[in-house]
Design goal:
With about 150 residues, the chain is mainly α. The protein has 4 helices and 2 strands. The protein has one domain.
Length: about 150
């Protein structure tokens, strides 16, 4: 069975927000990086400039030498992104019915909840030099508590 799982970052929603769709109401949304959807709690709040406290690369190193010249990470438009998602599901769907159901869910998302989430993401990105950085750090590195061995 082909399953679609949407994960929403908790900073996009107040804790008790519910989002109404045409077919149902979603309960509280939880951010999780694990496959079993356990809540992830990032480390306690830290200063916004916490990375500046890290030691500089060794003298003569080219690590991060071009960092200031990199372009800003853009937020991709919703509809073309969802169309690409539909295309990627074609080879992994087990049946045409399963594919049609996945496409229907994507279309519903694109015309309801997806529009509001896209607006919030674009608003978030407008005021951040790197809109994904904190989420990436927290979700991929700092909030992950399983063994690495």
């Amino acid at each position: 069975m082909l399953a679609l799982r949407l994960r929403f970052h908790s900073s996009l929603f107040p804790p008790s927000l519910t989002i109404a769709t045409t077919t149902s109401t979603l309960g509280k949304l939880h951010y999780s990086t694990s496959s079993h959807l356990m809540p992830v709690h990032p480390p306690s709040p830290r200063p916004t400039d916490w990375k500046s406290a890290a030691p500089s690369p060794p003298a003569g190193s080219t690590t991060f030498a071009a960092q200031s010249t990199l372009p800003k990470l853009t937020v991709l438009p919703l509809l073309p992104t969802l169309e690409r998602l539909k295309d990627t599901l074609v080879p992994i769907a087990h049946t045409q019915a399963e594919l049609a159901e996945a496409h229907r869910k994507i279309d519903e998302f694109s015309s309801t909840t997806g529009l509001e989430l896209q607006r919030r993401l674009e608003e978030h990105a407008r005021y951040k030099p790197h809109w994904l950085e904190q989420w990436w750090d927290d979700g991929a590195y700092l909030g992950y508590r399983d063994s690495v061995c």
